[in-house]
């Protein structure tokens, strides 16, 4: 791993515009399960039976149970050293932005400022009808919207079949198209359209992931390891 991390440090130092694209593997070391890993959310569940707008309408108790469980699990969850290292790199001007599929907000909590939340944020509760905001407690209590009174509340995440938030998508796309280094961390790249992003940059591409996902030819450099360990090693290499 050491040689690959030295190569990444070299790429970082020689790049002017660096974007980081993260997935659930970035957050597992903060004790948030991923989706397709050994103990991932989708291991014993088909996402189409729960994370869809049809389930929201037709099997609301299942929808509510699943997202309540995920929200409750986030209580006390904190960013790990890897999130803080990415925020430090942004502060030093070595990273320009982070595009993430993660919905728990850990990059922002760690101090990253330019964060594109491509799949939304699970704590941004809103009415499914009028989009008026509400609190996590209102969702957990299964309240209907206090503003329009017409519909149930939902977390502000992208469900299967829904469009990505256009502002986040446009920002990420713009940055990725012009960046000269894209670091992709902890994602299986199985979900469209985010899995197209690494193909849209003219810059160098680096994958940091616990397993080699194949993706032949897509990455100039692959570092197989845990996000936190690799980022700590990168930090030490840059400081040393
Ligand atoms: P996945 O669960 O599909 O992939 C996570 C990847 O991270 C896997 O390849 C793991 O091996 C790897 N991984 C796990 N822990 C790691 C660690 N500590 N360090 C490095 N790598 C690690 O998660 P995503 O690709 O993020 O969307 O999934 C994409 C989307 O699918 C999610 O945003 C969610 C889900 O359905 C929606 O709900 C819309």
Summarize the structure.
By secondary structure, this protein is α/β, with parallel strands linked by helices.
Structure description:
Helices cover 33% and strands 18% of the residues. A hairpin with a 5-residue loop joins β4 and β5. The mean pLDDT is 94. The chain has 2 domains: 151 residues, TPP-binding domain (Rossmann fold, 3-Layer(aba) Sandwich), CATH 3.40.50; 74 residues, SIR2/SIRT2 'Small Domain'. It has 240 residues and is of the alpha/beta class. It has a 6-stranded parallel sheet, with helices on both faces. Strands 5-4-6 form a 3-stranded antiparallel sheet. The protein is elongated and about 55 Å long. α1 packs across α8 and α4 packs across α8. The protein contains 8 helices and 9 strands. The two termini are 16 Å apart. The longest helix is centred in the N-terminal third of the chain and has 14 residues. 2'-O-acetyl adenosine-5-diphosphoribose binds next to loops.
Features:
Rossmann fold, 240 residues, alpha/beta, 2 domains, 8 helices, single chain, SIR2/SIRT2 'Small Domain', 9 strands, binds 2'-O-acetyl adenosine-5-diphosphoribose, 3-stranded antiparallel β-sheet, 18% strand
CATH fold call of the largest domain: Rossmann fold
**Would you identify the regions where 5 or more consecutive residues have pLDDT less than 50?**
none
Oligomeric state, counting identical vs distinct chains = single chain
Please tell me the CATH architecture of the largest domain by its name: 3-Layer(aba) Sandwich
Major sheet attributes: 6 strands, parallel
The main sheet orders its strands as 3-2-1-7-8-9
Q: Would you tell me the structural class of the helices and strands? A: alpha/beta
Task: Kindly estimate the percentage of residues that lie in beta strands according to DSSP.
Answer: 15-25%
List ligands, each type once: 2'-O-acetyl adenosine-5-diphosphoribose
Total domain count: 2
Q: Give the helix level as a range of percent.
A: 25-40%
């Amino acid at each position: 791993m050491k040689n690959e991390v030295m190569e990444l440090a070299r790429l970082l130092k020689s790049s002017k515009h660096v974007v980081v694209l993260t997935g659930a593997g970035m957050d597992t070391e903060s004790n948030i399960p991923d989706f397709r890993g050994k103990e991932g959310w989708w291991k014993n569940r088909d996402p189409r039976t729960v994370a869809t707008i049809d389930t929201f309408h037709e099997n609301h108790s299942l929808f509510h149970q699943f997202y309540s469980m995920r929200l409750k699990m986030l209580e006390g969850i904190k960013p790990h050293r890897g999130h803080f290292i990415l925020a430090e790199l942004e502060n030093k001007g070595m990273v320009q932005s982070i595009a993430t599929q993660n919905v728990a907000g850990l990059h922002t909590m760690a101090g990253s400022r330019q964060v594109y939340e491509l799949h939304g944020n699970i704590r941004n509760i809103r009415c499914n009808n009028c989009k008026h905001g509400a609190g996590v407690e209102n969702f957990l209590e299964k309240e209907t919207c206090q503003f329009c009174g017409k519909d149930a509340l939902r977390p502000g995440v992208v469900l299967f079949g829904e469009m990505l938030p256009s502002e986040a998508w446009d920002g990420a796309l713009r940055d990725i198209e012009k960046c000269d280094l894209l670091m992709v961390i902890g994602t299986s790249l199985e979900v469209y359209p985010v899995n197209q992003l690494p193909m849209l940059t003219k810059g160098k591409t680096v994958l940091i992931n616990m397993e080699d996902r194949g993706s032949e030819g897509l990455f100039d450099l692959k570092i197989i390891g845990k996000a936190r360990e690799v980022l700590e090693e990168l930090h030490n290499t840059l400081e040393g």
